[in-house]
Amino acid sequence: LNLSFMSSQAYFRTVELVQEPIPGSPGLSFYFRINGRPIFLKGSNWIPADSFQDRVTYDTLRLLLKSAADANMNALRVWGGGVYEQDEFYDICDEIGIMIWQDFMFACALYPTDQNYLASVRAEVLHQVRRLKSHPSIILWSGNNENEAAISTNWFSIPHAERERYIRDYLMLYVKNIREIVLNEDRSRPFIASSPTNGLESVKEGWVSQNPYDTHYGDTHFYDYNNDCWNWTMYPKTRFASEYGFQSWPSFSTIEKVSSAEDWSYVSNFSLHRQHHDSGNVQMLQEVGYHFKLPQGTDPVKRFKDTIYLTQVMQAQCTKTETEFYRASQSEIIRGEGHTMGALYWQLNDIWQAPSWASLEYGGKWKLLHYFARNFFAPLLPVAYEDQGVLYIYGVSDLHGDQKLTLRVVVHTWGSLEPVCTLAKEGVIVKAQSAVPIYKESISDVLERCRNCTRKSCVITFCLVGEDGLQSPTNHFFLSSLKDAVGLEKTQLSASVSKQDDTYIFVLQTTAIAPFVSMDVGSIKGRFSDNGFLMTEKKKVVVFYPWEPTSVEELENSLTLTSLLDVV
Ligand SMILES: *[C@@H]1O[C@H](CO)[C@@H](O)[C@H](O)[C@H]1NC(C)=O
Ligand SMILES: *[C@@H]1O[C@H](CO)[C@@H](O)[C@H](O)[C@H]1NC(C)=O
Ligand SMILES: *[C@@H]1O[C@H](CO)[C@@H](O)[C@H](O)[C@H]1NC(C)=O
């Protein structure tokens, strides 16, 4: 008797990777059609959940994957620099609806192709495809991470005369062996040789494209830590953004467990040692410095905590800007670019307690970015951006039906909880599975309409509201850097906590507008319904979902409330 057979689950789905001409644009599309519908992939990249795989339990995986789903993600890329995940990982993804872009485990390197090595790769790939192909969560096999790009842009300084040999090795490994095995074993899902790639165009160019980052084909990886990340013009209008991101530091409560008092400074040996990305700590401060005053306090621990907070605010706001740009680019072609159909930021989870691009800390605690992701990946979202002095708002929807909605736009001065002007545009149509312009006004008109406003003294918030309770998150648009904001007053934040069934209700009060309100309950495991938000109303109700037993008293005693003006 085979018990595992008796407990197996059946799921159905189809998947196609659509690469076809787009009217008005050179190149080819690159998107997934799932069960006959084009689907915008929203999510992140998965790395190993621990340096020691035997410490990774079913509960570890479930918590991380559930956190992805709770942040409105529908996809993860299992990165080729990590491990083939255990069966339970894919079981959970099948169950909760996370689609997997599965890399084979080859990354950022040139691999040999002698017979012994190839035999070992063939055995491994055959085993993994047979083990995993029954999981409907997997929607794509992908040969490697960044090795097409590494050859085409010569990361490893290969002398020109030897280039052909490395291309031959590349074809031998990924095309003649890995691809052959995949095609023999599993024709139910697409295969690409690398990420980033130009897809069919790369194939046409002999599998190593001249520029695998071409925005008109395939997927792209994009990182830039030098330019101002609030400025959307720096981002590539790609067909599919499969890697992009910014670093931040994990919470003090996470770091505290692996450090001692002499480590608690941004420039300590500990802080340098934990940073494994060259110049990472400096780059974070540079991005923070574009829009915020850097902490100047004389208490070193307070200064460290303020810096941690600001790196998390920066990471959340930068990744929000970039992701919203990709989502808003899904239905249009501008100067030949667009039809973006995926946004998978780098990276979901952490392998240890350290600064990184992750939105979930080691142990599972949500960084501010993960709360932002829950909003910027919401099924219905208004997105604002400015182009040449004009404010545009797009309605972005993953819903399967067209919606008739009301767009509410509210302007506040930083100094008052009373709005200076509000506007409700009714009968706004946001079409199913698309991003459409729904509002346009020059910034100077907005400032004039809302008397007494300047770019520095006012802030815009907006949301979409429908009948029968449909509502988008409230989004914000800053008219200037927050370090230049005029009129912000230090607020008095307070919270009352009560228990309701299995959750805890935090009623938060503020005496003034408070940007980036962070609620932190230290090492108590769980997550809030929202965090890091801009508070423009006196009161906000936030739910805490505990992951282990706790109490009102414990939560009250652990709670720290921080907003921007608490940074000194
Ligand atoms: C964004 O960057 C572009 C190109 O560098 C520049 O022209 C524009 O002024 C920038 N916008 C803002 C708001 O800084
Ligand atoms: C950092 O480590 C070096 C080498 O171990 C040591 O000489 C130095 O004093 C340390 N610096 C601090 C600030 O602890
Ligand atoms: C604009 O400022 C003036 C002077 O401070 C004030 O009297 C007036 O009420 C303000 N108008 C609005 C719409 O806030």
If strands are numbered along the chain, what order do they take across the biggest sheet? 8-7-6-5-4-13
| The named CATH superfamily of the largest domain | Glycosidases
| β-strand amount | 25-35%
Helix-residue proportion: 25-40%
Number of strands: 27
Shape: globular
Draw up the topology in text.
Blueprint: H1 3-6, E1 15-18, E2 31-34, E3 37-39, E4 41-46, H2 58-70, E5 75-78, H3 87-96, E6 99-103, H4 115-132, E7 138-142, H5 147-152, H6 163-185, E8 191-192, H7 200-204, E9 220-222, E10 241-244, H8 252-256, H9 269-274, H10 280-291, H11 300-328, E11 333-334, E12 337-338, E13 342-345, H12 368-376, E14 380-387, E15 390-397, E16 403-413, E17 421-430, E18 434-442, H13 443-449, E19 458-465, E20 475-478, E21 494-500, E22 503-509, E23 514-520, E24 526-528, E25 533-535, E26 539-546, H14 552-558, E27 560-562
Helix pairs in contact: 2-3, 4-6, 10-11, 11-12
Residues 231, 233 line the site of one 2-acetamido-2-deoxy-beta-D-glucopyranose (NAG).
Q: Can you describe this structure in just a few lines?
A:
It is built from 14 helices and 27 strands. The protein is α+β, with helices and mostly antiparallel strands. It folds into 3 domains: 15-247 and 311-376, TIM Barrel; 380-484, Sandwich (Immunoglobulin-like); 494-566, Immunoglobulin-like (Sandwich).
Describe this structure as you would to a colleague.
This protein is an alpha+beta fold and about 575 residues long. Strands 8-7-6-5-4-13 form a six-stranded parallel β-sheet. The protein has a four-stranded antiparallel β-sheet with strand order 17-16-19-20, with no helix packed on it. It starts with a helix and ends in a 6-residue tail after the last strand. Helices cover about 25% and strands about 25% of the residues. It folds into three domains: about 15-245 and about 310-375, Alpha-Beta Barrel (TIM Barrel), CATH 3.20.20; about 380-485, Sandwich (Immunoglobulin-like), CATH 2.60.40.10; about 495-565, Sandwich (Immunoglobulin-like). It comes from Lepidothrix coronata (blue-crowned manakin).
